[in-house]
Amino acid sequence: MSEPAIELRHVVRTYRRGASPVPVLKDVDLALAPGEMVALLGPSGSGKSTLLHLAGLLEPPDGGEVLLGGEACGHLDDGRRSALRRSSLGFVYQFHHLLPEFSALENVMIPQRLAGTAKAEARDRAETLLRSLGLGERLDHRPARMSGGEQQRVAIARAIANRPRVLLADEPTGNLDHSTAETVFEALVALARDSGVAALVATHNVELARRMDRIVTLEDGRIVPV
């Protein structure tokens, strides 16, 4: 059996409201195999975004561990966690967060250049990804000239550009109408499958969730049986 692409072992996260502790994640165990797509369901406030933040090494757990390819990473220093985010993790959010002053092509090149990829190689990779997502006519367009669905597809290409081990998506279609959400979701799945990346996708859309390999549900900070 292959090593999980990412694994959360007995992860705990607690915030504070004044002097009072607020438990958000309570002994969460979750593992994704390489290439597996997992939907993360749960009501608002159940801890989905916090789980993604910990899986994405954006903050450390208060207890337990986050492992990438078997390597314990959750408690590394900020510099090492930042390096791992660049090399091994891709992120897609509900809002695309594209840089408005740059074209679609440049937005997808930027993370590659920050990771040390040569300019010509980064350009070729960005163009290939954007064309595969049906954005060949939008390469030189800035975000303001693109629709919401087009901007989110650029964000997906940007997330995959550095060939991450794991893709984390937080309500990637939550800000889109039904038809556009379908298009973006299909693009996300197709690109993730083609890339062989493990993907954890938080969503409220049960219909879309059912198209993934597996569904896990988070309630009151715990993974519960489906």
List the helices and strands and how they pair.
Layout: E1 6-17, E2 20-32, E3 37-41, H1 48-55, E4 63-68, E5 71-72, H2 78-88, E6 89-92, H3 104-114, H4 119-132, H5 148-160, E7 166-170, H6 178-195, E8 198-202, H7 206-209, E9 214-219, E10 222-224
Parallel strand pairs: 3-8, 3-9, 6-7, 7-8
Antiparallel strand pairs: 1-2, 1-4, 4-5, 9-10
Helix pairs in contact: 3-4, 3-5, 5-6
What would you say about this model in short?
Keywords: ATP-binding, Cell inner membrane, Cell membrane, Hydrolase, Lipoprotein, Membrane, Nucleotide-binding, Transport. The protein has 226 residues and is of the alpha/beta class. It has 7 helices and 10 strands.
Describe the overall structure.
- Helix 3 (104-114) packs parallel to helix 5 and helix 5 runs parallel beside helix 6.
- The chain has a single domain, classed as P-loop containing nucleotide triphosphate hydrolases (Rossmann fold).
- It has 226 residues and is of the alpha/beta class.
- It is built from 7 helices and 10 strands.
- 35% of the residues lie in helices and 27% in strands.
- The model has no long low-confidence stretch (mean pLDDT 88).
- The strands form 2 sheets. A 6-stranded mixed beta sheet has the order 6-7-8-3-9-10. Strands 2-1-4-5 form a 4-stranded antiparallel beta sheet, with helices on one face.
